[in-house]
Amino acid sequence: MGVKIVETCLRDGHQSLFATRMNTDEVLSALPELDKVGYHAIEIWGGATFDACLRFLNEDPWERLRKARKICKHTKLQMLFRGQNILGYRHYADDVVDKFVEKSIKNGIDIIRVFDALNDIRNLERAVKATKKYGGECQIALSYTTSPVHTVKYYVDLAKKVEKLGADSLCIKDMAGVLLPTTAYELISELKKAVKLPIELHSHCTGGLMEMTYQKAIEAGVDIIDCALSPLASGTSQPCTEAFNFAYQGTKYDPKLNVEMLNAAAKKMQVVRQKYIANGLLNPKVLGFNPNILIYQVPGGMLSNLISQLKQQGKEDKLDEVLKEVPHVRKDLGYPPLVTPLSQMVGTQAVMNVITGERYKMVPKEINAYLHGQYGQAPAPVNEEIRKKIIGNDKVITYRPADDLKPEFEKLKKQYKHIAKTDEDVLSLALFPEVAMKFFEQRKADKKPTRIKLKA
Ligand code: CO
């Protein structure tokens, strides 16, 4: 059987290229054709798509999902899920995780890809259980990064735990695009030997390597690759779907996608691309390559965040120093992978260390919580001297952080009963309280009864 392809243009594609601003009409425009391409799945939902719907587009993300499900009759729909954080930024109680999974599946999601920034398996358990309970397909994604502890063996050991946990498949999530072709070959080969699960590779072209890395992964037996349709491919996004379909035509890896439907869908997505180039949201800069990410091992999004953080303080000249500080901070913190929310936390700490001229003189509250164990277990031991300097003799938790959380869904439901009409509304409010509240208040205002015309 050939290599399978997951289409990412409707989630990661526009998230990576133009801040997730594609609206529902645009997302749906090419879906009838995409549905007939023959993909393994179409990725359509995740934290940023959910947030951007409410925050910037004045749209209900649940509505988008239901509409997509109606159109998409042949292909599975996939979403990205941040473990115990769901799609938000804090840990939620187990009953909220359950409810969100239940409603995602009921509204149209088939595959839930769950990941945890620290690869702390305990933070994934509940989402996996809930997905199975409500009849969904569960994929666990391991955050890929490089460090002295993130060896091939580290990932193989984790993969065995993932298989035991009951996941249906495993994904290597290389959010920064730093997986080298030779490492990919070794990693995928070893994973295929160690577990029976289908293996998927997710990466970004940012550093200019990914077509090579995907090729080596395919040769090593990877089952599924994440690609984006040409108008939303490359640069900070995924490798091009059509190119991989052509590259392997007639070989044992042939993805066998429908070229006619690919072209028809690409034509429609081309219109979307042109719109975002014209309005400036798609900066041509992100379409090129940035080899610096391979030197500093920093994801593209984090790099642009650091630049804007420094700009705001008039310290742009400190960028090199900050980039050199990032590996120090990572080491002190036990080498967390640089993915949301750790990428922002490590970046901010590195900026503070450089600007104050003294390490950990200023510490963001999230780093403080991290050192208390509130995000889960660090991949390697943290620097105890630094921990002591920051949190003193405070207790550090060693159990699953969500064990401290009491059920909260019914409480949230009561709290929002004046504005939430459905459980889906309650979940939106639980994840993005301020943004969702604004959205629902607007919805209420828009629905004020208009005067009924009387018959003459
Ligand atoms: Co990605």
Overview of this protein structure:
The protein has 456 residues and is an alpha/beta fold. The protein is 48% helix and 9% strand. It contains 21 helices and eight strands. The chain has an eight-stranded parallel β-barrel, surrounded by seven helices. Helix 8 packs parallel to helix 9 and helix 15 crosses helix 16. The radius of gyration is 22 Å and the shape is globular. The protein starts with a strand and ends in a 10-residue tail after the last helix. The mean pLDDT is 95. The chain binds cobalt (II) ion. Cobalt (II) ion binds next to loops.
Strand and helix layout:
Elements (H helix, E strand, L loop, with lengths): L3 E4 L1 H10 L5 H6 L1 H4 L6 E5 L1 H10 L4 H11 L4 E6 L12 H14 L3 E5 L9 H9 L3 E7 L8 H14 L3 E5 L7 H14 L4 E4 L7 H10 L4 E4 L13 H7 L11 H20 L13 H5 L3 H13 L6 H14 L9 H15 L8 H7 L12 H8 L17 H7 L7 H9 L1 H14 L10
Parallel strand pairs: 1-2, 1-8, 2-3, 3-4, 4-5, 5-6, 6-7, 7-8
Helix pairs in contact: 6-7, 8-9, 9-10, 14-16, 15-16, 20-21
The chain binds cobalt (II) ion.
Features:
8 strands; 21 helices; 456 residues; globular; single chain; alpha/beta; eight-stranded parallel beta barrel; binds cobalt (II) ion
